[in-house]
Amino acid sequence: MTLEEMQRSVHANARAHGFWEGCYVPEHAPRLDQFRNLAEVPLVRAEVLKQIPEKVALLHSEVTEILEAYREHPDKCDRDDLFYVGDEWRTREQTVVSPPKPAGIREELADIIIRCGDLAEALGIDLSKAVRQKMDYNATRPFKHGKTC
Ligand SMILES: [Mg+2]
Questions:
Q1: pTM score, two decimals?
Q2: If you measure from the C-alpha of residue 87 to the centroid of ligand 1, how many angstroms do you get, rounded to a whole number?
Q3: How far is CA 64 from each of CA 11, 74, 122, rounded to the nearest angstrom?
């Protein structure tokens, strides 16, 4: 799956689950250069831009959940073969829910990428291009970006 496919998919799933309810965002958020009716651009952007504070807060909550996962289960927080069900860790075979809910650091890292993809899609941002541009820029930066520690 490409990053573009991922962001389209997570945004479609977020919309289907009501996370953009009440916000006017086209089903497949066009890139800004794809709008047929340019008068629609400010309307769509204003609606999406209003969502940014909440979306950023939720993104931050996922970062905090990484710390929680580490603090609660430091010995299991990076396992991809265990699932946290009820109050205990189980293997896939021990779970009755399908698919079982992932847990730990890997789940929260995935949540961060999912939330970034959702917001990027709503904003019409090509996340793959944005990441590539930032990586190219970062490669030119000095050691520790010029900081001493
Ligand atoms: Mg989470």
A1: 0.81
A2: 17
A3: 22, 15, 24
Q: What is the pLDDT of residues 23-78, one digit of tens each?
A: 766 665 555 555 566 566 666 677 788 889 999 999 999 999 999 988 988 887 77
**102 C-alpha to center of ligand 1: Å?**
10
Residue 128 has pLDDT above 80, yes or no: yes
CA of 107 to the centre of ligand 1 (A): 6
The phi, psi pair for 9, rounded to 5°, reads: -70, -45
pLDDT the model gives residue 18: 92
Which CATH architecture best describes the domain 3-132? Orthogonal Bundle (1.10)
Nearest alpha-carbon partner for 30 in 50, 52, 8, 59: 8
Residue 64 Cα to ligand 1 midpoint, Å, equals: 9
Instruction: Give start and end residues of each alpha helix (H) in 73-140.
Output: 105-123, 127-139
Rounded distance between C-alpha atoms, residue 50 and residue 23, angstroms: 9
What spatial distance separates the first Cα and last Cα of the chain, rounded to whole Å? 37
CA 106 to ligand 1 centroid distance, Å: 10
Q: Where are the domains of the chain?
A: 3-132
